[in-house]
Amino acid sequence: MADLAAIPLTRIDGAADSLAEHEGNVLLVVNVASKCGLTPQYEGLEALYTQYKDQGFEVLGFPANDFGAQEPGTHDEIAEFCSINYGVSFPLFAKADVTGEGKQPLYAALTEAKPDKIGPAEDFRERLKGYGMTPTQDPEVLWNFEKFLIGRDGTIAARFAPTIEPNAPELVGAIETELAK
Q1: pLDDT tens per residue, range 93-136
Q2: Which of 175, 166, 128 lies closest to 30 in space, CA to CA?
Q3: Spatial distance between the Cα atoms of 71 and 89, rounded to a whole number of angstroms
Q4: Residue 171's CB: how many other CB atoms inside 10 A?
Q5: Residue 90 near residue 147, CB atoms below 8 Å
Q6: Peptide bond preceding 169: is omega within 30 degrees of 0, i.e. cis?
Q7: Helix, strand, or coil here: 93?
């Protein structure tokens, strides 16, 4: 597996970044989209970030247009949407693929290291099929708002299905456990 901290990233404003810049913090890496049924999770993600940021917690949002073309906007449009509609203050990154052959290196490393999700992935997969969608199969990211929790030491502590809300006890508990380490 690639060293997560060494993978180059680009912020939504074009600035260079990497997970090394966030070393020592607990990170929740989430692929996000503006036109998805799960988009209201931005509100909960911002609430988590606000609640725990002073304890060394960050949400890192990665816009992706992989699923149903639900993130069609430009970087400026995405940043404006997130700010105006959800008051997002956590870092957003450049739009890039999170699944398939062209997925960005960070997501290739995350899915390789943590192929299994916590949460009702199969139920959600069946719902997507009911809408005429063709969902991915594990270990690929299933849909928008899948979450990877990375501990202070840089290891991937957990992976959560898209339907696990930001305020879900299993997610909040995992964050608090990692913050306590």
Answers
A1: 999 999 999 999 999 999 999 999 999 898 999 999 999 988 99
A2: 166
A3: 19
A4: 21
A5: no
A6: no
A7: strand
Distance (Å, rounded) from C-alpha 41 to C-alpha 61? Answer: 12
Per residue in 31-86, pLDDT (tens digit) is 999 999 999 999 999 999 999 999 999 999 999 999 999 999 999 999 999 999 99
Query: For 44-57, how does the pLDDT look when each residue is reduced to its tens digit (9 = 90+)?
Result: 999 999 999 999 99
For the whole prediction, is pTM greater than 0.85?
yes
Spatial separation of the C-alpha atoms in residues 94 and 4, rounded to whole Å:
17
Q: Let me know if domain 4-180 sits in CATH 3.40.30.10.
A: yes
- Quickly tell me which residue has 């964050």 as its tokens: 175
Provide the annotated active-site residues.
Answer: 36
Element (H, E) at 8: strand 8-10
Residue 80 CA to residue 84 CA, distance in Å, equals 6
pLDDT digits (tens, 9 = 90+) for 8-27: 999 999 999 999 999 999 99
CB atoms under 10 Å from CB of 7, counted, come to 17
CA dist., res. 104 & res. 116, Å (int): 19
Sheet of strand 57-63, all strands in order from the earlier edge strand to the far edge: 57-63, 26-32, 147-150, 156-160
Beta bridge partners of 9: 17
